[in-house]
Amino acid sequence: MNFLASDYQDIRDGVRALCAQYPAEYHRKIDAERGYPEAFVDALTREGWMAALIPEAYGGSGLGLTEASVIMEEINRAGGNSGACHGQMYNMSTLVRHGSEEQRQRILPKLASGELRLQSMGVTEPTTGTDTTKIKTTAVKRGDKYVINGQKVWISRVQHSDLMILLARTTPLAEVSKKSEGMSIFLVDIKEAMRGGMTVNPIANMVNHETNELFFDNLEIPEENLIGEEGQGFKYILTGLNAERTLIAAECIGDGYWFTDKVTAYVSEREVFGRPIGQNQGVQFPIAEAYIEVEAANLMRWKACALFDAGQPCGAEANMAKYLAAKASWEAANSCIQFHGGFGFANEYDVERKFRETRLYQVAPISTNLILSYVAEHVLGMPRSF
């Protein structure tokens, strides 16, 4: 396991150079307009960063989750928001690891070139939340098609994606021996689906994070869009979820460094009562504590990445990395806005924007309480609580 961030300096330098072309003013404008950073995502794609996890045989860079996490971290550390594009990174791993050779040949080169985007994953439902095995969206085989009926919620970037990975029940819960069985994953052509039975309703929210509620009414999907074996979708989707949580951890680490860099510079210059406010230990200690927590979370991120890239079980590490990093970035955000005082709430300082963005990760893609439950049961061996 490699803990030296400097070993990825070439990636960091490349992403930083690109991000420098899209400074804070760009992201501030996008946020104010509740828009999508189309030009920024296109630039990331053109320079190959969005194809990091695609094998070289399909036109990608053939890198691992470790390198992908560095890309996401640097976007956030530069003041951007990886939430606009991180879906393609973690959805990619599901397709690469579990898709058929025909699917990989047909789709991956187009994702690498930017001809297609795979930014969305449809798992969560309004009545089940994190209780994924209880999902009610069904996929019934009829001839050479699957017919989808149901509802999903908090499905992001649908308007800026061509494809979506969808989880649905192909065998009723009452008919399976294990509740994690009987679910399957499908590739959905979003534009075709919107013409044939899928309705998309945007959800306005406190962050400029495009997300939606989806309704499926007899949507037909070709059988060749089934990923892997029917009924094993929950197992496959965990690949994407572990990648997602690890990448989110890296993004939070990037946020944490952005906040500590920002507030350290500010309190070192801001003078009140004839002295820099950063000279006061009451200001120093919360910032120092947040920085320590970011550094500690970073180590767990590297461990989760190393296990994922080695094909080893990494559920506990991915969850713990996400928990630690989200907590650290939130503490750093609190310190940053507190010691900027009123200026922390002014749009031009970018603190309030980043403050809102990083708060999301206490709740999504999995809440901190659910991570604690996972660790209590699956790591510490305590009785199952639900």
From TrEMBL:
The keyword Flavoprotein applies. InterPro entries: Acyl-CoA_DH_CS (IPR006089), Acyl-CoA_Oxase/DH_mid-dom (IPR006091), Acyl-CoA_Oxase/DH_mid-dom_sf (IPR046373), AcylCo_DH-like_C (IPR036250), AcylCo_DH/oxidase_C (IPR009075), AcylCoA_DH/ox_N (IPR013786), AcylCoA_DH/ox_N_sf (IPR037069), AcylCoA_DH/oxidase_NM_dom_sf (IPR009100). Its cofactor is FAD. It holds the Pfam family Acyl-CoA_dh_N. Residues 231-364 form the Acyl-CoA dehydrogenase/oxidase C-terminal domain. The keyword Nucleus does not apply. Residues 120-218 form the Acyl-CoA oxidase/dehydrogenase middle domain. Keywords: FAD, Flavoprotein, Oxidoreductase. This is Acyl-CoA dehydrogenase. It comes from Sulfitobacter brevis.
